[in-house]
Design goal:
heterodimer, A: alpha+beta, Phosphatase 2c, domain 1, 2 domains, 5-stranded antiparallel sheet, 14 strands, 25% strand, B: alpha/beta, Transcription Regulator spoIIAA, 5-stranded mixed sheet
Chain lengths: 348, 139
């Protein structure tokens, strides 16, 4: 039973959770109220005896009071990305409960939850490669998203997307929710990443009425050869970290951002990931992060952090960047979503 | 973090309103800048020169501000969920045809800001001048 500060609407929470946890087969998530009764079970059956002591437990707060818990069990709960996503989920459910008497606030809370549930939790397992990622939602709805997935074609190449909807608020969240499957489908169906972004742009220009833009990188990795074809629509350029300790390179070249002009003109970028090489993709939530003195994290710190961790596996490079940004920010709350994706090819 | 704005009206060949941005343009203040320009438009200002010489940083939300400013100065609705793109596409179509809108021009952009504009392609929307004096003489 809740204590009256805000009821958790079981049906709505269940719908959200179903979408959320479908992203991972290594995770089961339940929401339990203060009496320990599950009000929603999203994936598998955690059973009706779940208590807040069972696994990873995150508090749901509403109007400052504790109204329930998100409980997750499964091997994925040690993954910092999963913890971060669940933390955002718990905060979002609390906002939903708090907002339910105010229709606009309720809509916003639902949009924020929907956005967070759309963000991929983890990429596919691909022999010979490490695909690692981190996503951290800002307090307000931001618009980052990324995807790592295997394309439906011969040799199952890996599709890679990282994107950032400019601006913030419900409009950014809605545009993100619209654009994400469009880019995914375009990448699956098109001749290559430049074509995929061009198709996405055409749809955005023709169909969407919003005052916001999207910067994005799409890529297709041939896992057999290590050939990575990419296209960049106004996004921060990817960083190539050679496995032989050569200098970190910037993969330059790109077109305009998505949705603004009728043609992108993004060239196809052709990179080869040799054994030991890593590719780092990120959104401006990393470089624009603000520390207590008002200083920005910036590119020099980004490069120095990668340099110090460059010989480590992709997951450790992601963790190093995540921790460096968190430490730099200190107690300053994140103003923008933070997304980091690292693709590392194993050494031969 | 903070952003200061100052407004000055000068007479070139046409009356020019110079809006100088000083500090950092980011998610915390981009809407305020659009609002300020809306006030200028409502007061009758029709040619806007954005002096960016004191702007040390522009986040991607600054692009939304620039886009919104162009729309406002063209008498269109500012960006929101229901409006913005069609007017904007009319503008970008004009750009595709070789022209640039002249109602909002830039001067004094620092490398950090120029890089964001060039990377995202929004530089093609604006006539850009090295400094205020050159801009006023050219407008």
């Amino acid at each position: 039973m809740t204590d009256g500060r805000g009821a958790l609407d079981a049906a709505r929470v269940e719908r959200i959770l179903a979408r959320f946890a479908a992203a991972s087969d290594r995770l089961r998530v339940a929401v339990v109220d203060m009496a320990g009764d599950p009000i929603a079970v999203s994936v598998g059956s955690i059973g009706d005896r779940v208590t807040p002591d069972d696994g990873l437990v995150l508090e749901i707060r509403c109007a400052g009071g504790l109204v329930g818990h998100v409980v997750a069990i499964g091997p994925a709960i040690d993954d910092p990305t999963v913890v971060s996503a669940l933390d955002a989920l718990a905060a979002g459910i609390g906002e939903l409960a708090e907002a339910e008497d105010h229709s606009l606030a309720s809509e916003l809370a639902q949009a924020r939850l929907a956005q967070r549930s759309f963000v991929s939790l983890r990429g596919p397992a691909v022999p010979g490669y490490d695909l690692a990622s981190h996503y951290e939602a800002a307090r307000e709805i931001g618009g980052d998203f990324f995807e790592l997935f295997q394309l439906q074609r011969r040799r199952r190449p890996v599709g890679i997307v990282i994107a950032d909807v400019t601006g913030k608020g419900i409009g950014a969240g809605m545009l993100m929710a619209f654009a994400r499957p469009v880019i995914h489908a375009a990448l699956d169906a098109s001749r290559g990443p430049a074509d995929a972004l061009e198709r996405t742009n055409r749809i955005l220009v023709d169909e969407i009425r919003s005052g916001l833009f999207i910067t994005a990188i799409a890529g297709v990795l041939d896992v057999t050869t290590g050939r990575l074809r990419m296209a960049n629509a106004g996004h921060e350029p990817p960083l190539l970290v050679p496995g032989d300790d050569g200098p970190i390179g910037t993969v330059e070249g790109g077109g305009v951002l998505l949705g603004a002009f009728r043609s992108l003109g993004a060239p196809e970028l052709d990179v080869r990931l040799r054994p030991g090489d890593s590719l780092v993709l990120y959104t401006d939530g990393v470089t624009d992060a603000i520390g207590p003195t008002g200083e920005r994290f910036g590119e020099p710190r980004l490069l120095a952090t990668i340099e110090a961790a460059r010989r480590a596996p992709a997951h450790d490079i992601v963790a190093a960047l995540r921790d460096a940004v968190a430490e730099f920010r200190g107690t300053v709350p994140p103003a923008d979503d933070v997304t980091i994706v690292v693709i590392g090819r194993h050494r031969a | 973090m903070a952003l200061q704005t100052t407004v000055e009206r000068v007479d070139g060949r046409v009356p020019i309103t110079v809006l100088a941005l000083e500090g950092e343009l980011d998610a915390s203040n981009f809407e305020r800048v659009i609002d300020e320009v809306r006030g200028l438009y409502d007061a009758g200002d029709r040619t806007l020169l954005l002096d960016l010489s004191g702007l040390t940083f522009m986040a991607s939300s600054g692009l939304v501000a620039l886009h919104g400013i162009v729309l406002v100065m063209h008498g269109d609705q500012p960006p929101d969920l229901e409006g913005g793109w069609s007017a904007f596409h009319a503008l970008t179509d004009a750009v595709g045809g070789g022209g640039r809108q002249a109602e909002v021009q830039l001067c004094g952009a620092q490398p950090a800001v120029t890089r964001v504009l060039e990377r995202t392609g929004l530089d093609r929307l604006f006539l850009s001048h090295p400094d205020r004096a050159t801009a006023i003489a050219a407008i």
